[in-house]
Specification:
Keywords: Chromosome partition. InterPro entries: FSCA_dom_sf, MIP18, MIP18-like. Belongs to the MIP18 family. This protein is an alpha+beta fold. It has a domain of about 120 residues: Fe-S cluster assembly (FSCA) (GMP Synthetase, Chain A, domain 3, 2-Layer Sandwich), CATH 3.30.300.130. The chain has five helices and three strands; from the N terminus they run H-E-E-H-E-H-H-H. The chain has a three-stranded mixed sheet with strand order 1-2-3. Strand 2, helix 2 and strand 3 form a beta-alpha-beta unit. Helix 2 runs parallel beside helix 3 and helix 2 packs across helix 5. The N and C termini lie close together (about 10 Å).
Length: about 180
């Protein structure tokens, strides 16, 4: 990874209060594929399906850290609740890079995808996109983020997985070194 900062002086905003979420992260899950024998996501009690809303998805991704700065995606206004669309079994997240030439956009999108894959029942299809017109390589970034084989290949790269884990880390365990 390059030591060049794509946005050396980002604008930082205050975060909003967190609402309680009914979704918890599965820390023992793999990054991409779920265990074939794991039935925890199935509807075990009748046909009762717990609905997930936009605010719960926002709560999951708002605390992801930017790969370049010790700030969350919410603080940098990379993600917001209105950028999330929730359907019956489909979630679309749109994010806004801090600069149009951000080289970390695919890493940010990958971090969002991993957090949602770890946290949501497997019945959900997740699409991650950069906000239209917000990145100079918008089509390429969107293609990488939504291609299952590319994502799986990226998650087999140990240094990349380590970086994603740092972005997903809890605040007390995050240690960023800006060069």
């Amino acid at each position: 990874m390059s030591s060049e900062l794509f946005n050396a002086n980002p604008t930082v905003f205050s975060s909003t209060k967190s609402t309680s979420s009914r979704i918890t992260e599965h820390s023992a899950q793999s990054l991409w594929l779920r265990d074939q024998n794991d039935n925890s996501d199935t509807e075990s009690e009748g046909n009762e399906v717990e609905e997930i809303d936009q605010d719960e998805i926002f709560d999951l991704i708002r605390t992801i850290y930017d790969p370049e700065h010790p700030n969350t995606l919410e603080e940098l206004r990379v993600v917001s609740a209105p950028q999330i669309t929730v359907g019956r079994n489909h979630i679309k997240v749109e994010f806004t890079p801090t600069v149009p030439h951000c080289g970390m956009s695919t890493l940010i999108g990958l971090s969002i995808r991993v957090r949602l894959l770890r946290s949501l029942p497997s019945r959900y299809k997740v699409d991650i996109y950069v906000k239209p017109g917000s990145h100079q390589s918008e089509l390429s970034v969107n293609k990488q983020l939504n291609d299952k084989e590319r994502v799986a290949a990226a998650l087999e790269n140990p240094p990349l997985v380590d970086t994603v884990e740092k972005c997903l880390a809890k605040p007390s365990s995050v240690a960023f070194q800006l060069v």
